[in-house]
User: What shape does this take?
Amino acid sequence: MPGAESAEERTTTPAPPPRDRNPTPQEKILSALPARADAVVIGGGVIGTSAAYHLAEAGVDTVLLERAGLGGGASAHTAGMVRTYFPGAPSTGQRAVRSLNAYHDFARHTAVPLALKRLGFMVLFTDEQQIAGFEAEQRAQRAVGVEVGLIGPREASGLNPLVDERAVLAAAWSPEAYHVDGLDIVRGYAAAARNHGARLFTHTPVTHIDDDNTVHTPQGRIKADTIVCTAGPWSGEVASMASVDLPLAPRTMEMLFTDVPPSPHREMPMTMHAASGLRIRSWKDRVLLAMGAPKAGEAREDWLGRIAEHLGTLFPALDGIGLHRAWSGDFDAAPDNRALIGEHPTRRFLYAAGFTGAGLCQAPAAGEKLRDLLIAQ
Ligand SMILES: Cc1cc2nc3c(=O)[nH]c(=O)nc-3n(C[C@H](O)[C@H](O)[C@H](O)COP(=O)(O)OP(=O)(O)OC[C@H]3O[C@@H](n4cnc5c(N)ncnc54)[C@H](O)[C@@H]3O)c2cc1C
Assistant: This one.
C-alpha cells in the first residue's frame, strides 16, 4: 500500500507524497551531457537508481537520465511495503527474497540506513479453492526462500483483531514484510551510484532514440553502447522510441484512509483479501486501504460501495466507516503480472519494467539482473 512513507509519521490526515520539483543550481550545472557512455539508464525511480548503482559498482561507465526529479514517478506514490510472499508467483518471491536481503544490508553498500519496520503480511482465504491453491504452491514458495504458512481463522484474528474469524476459512501468514521509505531507497542508490562514478542527470527528458542508440534530450544527445529502460509506467513509451515493443499497460491505484475507528486498534500486519485484492493496514490512528481503482465505466460510488461491503464482511469494526481519498498513482503492469526484465534480441537495449505494484520489493534484484545481462553482452 501507500508510500508517502514520511507521511507515516504524521498524526493528521496524510498528504500526497512529494511530486516533482525545480532543478537545484547544482543540477543545472550538471546538465552538460557527455558524448557517450557504456550504459545510459532512462528513468530515475527505484529500478533505475538500483540499475545505475549496480552497473557503476561493476565498473560500467553509466549515465542516468531522469526527466523530473529522482524518485518523482511511481516510486513517490507507494505504500512503502516490501514483502516476499506473492501468491501464485514464486519467481517474483525469489526476486523479493534476494531484494529483502539487500535491504537489510543497504547501509553497508550505500551509506544510507533504511528504517525497515516489520509488519508481516496476511492473505485471507474465504473459499476452499484458495486454500488448495496455497497448498499446491507452498513447496515452490519455500524452495525460493519465502517464509509462509497456513494459519486458522483464530490465529488470523489474533494477528489482526479487526479480522472477523467467522468470515474467513484460513489465511496465509508471511512474517517477512516491512514498511520502508521508498524514497530512501532512491536516495541511497543514487548516492552510491555517484560514489562509483555514475553521472545522474535530472530534468533531462529523453525525447528520441536513433537506431544507433544515440539518445536525444533537450539538453543535448548522448551515444549509448547499451540503453537501459527503467521508465516505470512510461517504459512502453520510451521503448517505442527505440522501436522496441514492451507489452505494458499503466494501471492506477488509489489509496484511501478511514475515519478514526470508534475503538482504537493496535498496529496490524498488512492484510489482504485474496478474492478482491482489498488490502488494509494501520496508518497511525486510522486504517489505510487499497483496492485498485474504479473499473472502466464504474462509478466511483459503486467502487467505494464494493470496498465498504468487503470491509463490513471481513472487518466488522470498520462497517460503515467513512472513506477518504489519500493519494493515487500509476504503476506499470505486465500482462501476467510478472516483471519484464530482459534484453532485445538484436539491439543493445535492456529493460526492467512491469513490476505491477511491487517495484520496491524487487528493485535490488532487478538492478543485479540488468548488470549481469549487460556484462554478458
Ligand atoms: C498507489 C501505489 C502504491 C504502491 N505501493 C507499493 C508498495 O507498497 N510496494 C511496492 O513494492 N510497490 C508499490 N507500488 C509500485 C511501485 O510504485 C512501482 O513498482 C515502482 O515505483 C516502480 O519503480 P520504477 O523505478 O520502475 O518506476 P518510477 O518510479 O515511475 O520511475 C520511472 C522514472 O522514469 C522517468 N521517465 C519517464 N519517462 C522518461 C523519459 N522520457 N525520459 C527520462 N525519464 C523518464 C519518470 O519521471 C520516473 O521518475 C505502488 C504503486 C502505486 C501507484
